[in-house]
Amino acid sequence: MRRREFIGLIGSATAVLPQAVRAQRPRQPVIGYLSSISKDGEGRLREAFWQGLGDAGFSENQNVTAVYLYADGQYDRLPALAEELVARQVDIIVTGRSSPAALAAKRATSTIPIVFFLGADPITLGLVESYNRPGANVTGINLAPESLTGKRLELLNDLVPGSSPVAELVNPANKTVETEKRVAIEAARTLGRELLFLDASSAAEIGPAFEETKRRQVAGLVVWFEALFQSNSDQIVTLANRYRLATVFPTRTYTDIGGLLSYGPNLPATYRQFGVYAGKILKGARPQDLPVMTPTKFDLVINLKTAKELGIAIPPALLARADEVIE
What we know:
CATH architecture of the largest domain: 3-Layer(aba) Sandwich
Largest sheet: 7 strands, mixed
Number of domains: 2
Structural class: alpha/beta
Distance between the termini: 87 Å
Strand order of the largest sheet: 7-6-8-9-10-11-12
Number of strands: 12
CATH class of the largest domain: Alpha Beta
Radius of gyration: 24 Å
């Protein structure tokens, strides 16, 4: 072989070598993140999710990447978004704070692992076979193994005793709304209170729903644990206080920004566990072997400053039961 040809051969091999090395590197897993709400609405909770993945040894854009798709409160977009994640061949689909997102993901794939985060019974929804043995490719976290609406109505009844009607703010676009209404109606009947429902399926409909409280002389309000309402918590708290309504919220997200009272799970802590579960599956665990998780503690938080501004007297017995009082 001539010297010039030999040098050329070495040069070609050197040029090809880095590509060969790159080809041997393992492919980073890809998370498909499907949310019913907007990117801004996820904020702190998305950070908690990644903290959980960090506990499992994963760091975004270092050893795992993510594709984020948001429905911006338009639930009818979720099926197409879920299909897009399947087409992108993601390794796992996680669905944040929404039963419609989880249902859309399950309809889109029976093979890609799915981890849900919702506040409705996943068995009734057909997502899993049981809590201990979910079956198929789906598992996750249910924030409310039993509806907490009855408990929230009890708290509202303590705040505004009497016979005046109370109301619940619901999203009619959510497929679980009829189940929620049945639970709420039964709880109100037990308390002997008339219950009205205020519908809002978009941010633009929330204001008119609150206008109804004045026209219908509603004494107090319960806000449903629903992704649309969580992502518009500032608007809802502002309106509740403007109309001087005794309002019971589903999480302390609301009381932290001026809501009167909340009863529900700690969302950041639970979202972190959501990330841990996703990490376990990325490491090889099968969804059918991971039981559906539920919170073990629910916090009652009272914003005493807001109560004073609204002129609402918090019963001493209720204050004594509070896990935290914001003064």
